[in-house]
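User: I'm putting together a teaching handout on how sequence relates to shape, and I'd like one worked example. Could you take GTSF1 factor from Cardinalis cardinalis, show the sequence you're using, and then write out its predicted structure as tokens right after it?

Assistant: Happy to. First the sequence, then the structure tokens directly below it.
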Amino acid sequence: DMLDPERLIQCPLVKHHWIRARRFPYHLVKCKESNPEIAKKLATCPFNARHLVPQADLSKHIMNCNDKAFVEQDVVSRSSESSQEQLNNGSTWQAPPSAEDWETDLLEGSESTFVWASLHYSEQNSPS
């Protein structure tokens, strides 16, 4: 049974290590620290941090990982929930149409052209 916390799992770092499922995450941390040269050669699955595979096999593992389906299913259900939530909350706001037409204004040479100006004070206008 995959959900049994007492089942034994083989360590991906040291093949003769067999660890109870409930202790497996802790073992991985310790075993990586104890075997840094082996750990450098392994990559962590993006779908389940308990999956350590040789770096060269990571792409293949990602394509076939059983946990990938759970992640994808979760993403799909969350996106459909948020879409449904928006509909339920009436969050279907749309911007009102704009009366501005920048292209026409540009072609017609708008009379109210904005110009940056600088103020120059003569010596007469400056405070003494």
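A couple of points you could highlight for students: The chain has a mean pLDDT of 80. The two ends are 92 Å apart (CA to CA).
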